[in-house]
Amino acid sequence: MQHHVLCILVLGVSSVRMSDPEQCNCEEKVPACMVIPGSNGLPGIPGSNGLPGRDGKEGPQGEKGEQGLRGMQGPPGKAGPPGLKGESGQKGDCGGKELELLKTQISDLQGELKALQLTASKTQKAILGYIFSNSTRVGGKLFVTNGDDGDYETSKATCNHFGGQVASPRNENENTAALKLSAKMGRKVFFGMNDQETEGIFKHLNGETMEYSNWAPKEPNGVEEDCIELYPDGKWNDISCNVARLIMCEF
Ligand SMILES: [Ca+2]
Ligand SMILES: [Ca+2]
Known about the structure:
GO cellular component, one term: extracellular space
Subcellular location: Secreted
Distance between the termini: 154 Å
CATH architecture of the domain at 127-250: Roll
Oligomer: single chain
Shape: elongated
Pfam family, one: Lectin_C
Bound molecules: calcium ion
Strand order of the largest sheet: 1-2-7-3
GO biological process, one term: ossification
Strand content: 5-15%
Coiled coil: 99-126
Largest sheet: 4 strands, antiparallel
Mean pLDDT: 80
């Protein structure tokens, strides 16, 4: 009986202290009261929660899910083994005939091209001969002068500009024709041949060696004279390429 009274007092004091946050230590006194429930009708203090129970049994298998999204393309696989060598084919008769036909056509075209070039060349010379009164025709060649003077390089550039080259006689008739035009103009002219590449060996502008020449006595005689001028008597003299002479071209 004394024990019950003590507990009631203690509970009263505890409830008072619970309202005071600064002195809350009633938890330590609760176990002393756990012996009270059921003895005298006074309500007991609720116990604390028990431990979690054991895991339940495994449930039934779920239904099959929907198909997932398609994954990314993987890296290319290794190259397969080489295939078997094929059998050699038969020679095509048709291809051979076509080739021969093409060759014939190309040959025909080349012939027509040459004919056209010849016609164009004749036309060009006819036009030049008509435009330039100072011209002389000999065989298939046309010597033309515009009346200007210039050194050798200027003569070459001028003639190349019009599609020709510096006058280069290859026989006596051409030399005579060039002399005739030179005499008409009353001035000496340069020829195209020179020994600029190898001293003493005069060559044509296309690199060919000279088969015809008409040197004056004791000519050529100049180590520093690599060009050719035409004397009034038709003879040739090697002379410096830097002097000025009448520009005469051939077409
Ligand atoms: Ca020389
Ligand atoms: Ca000379």
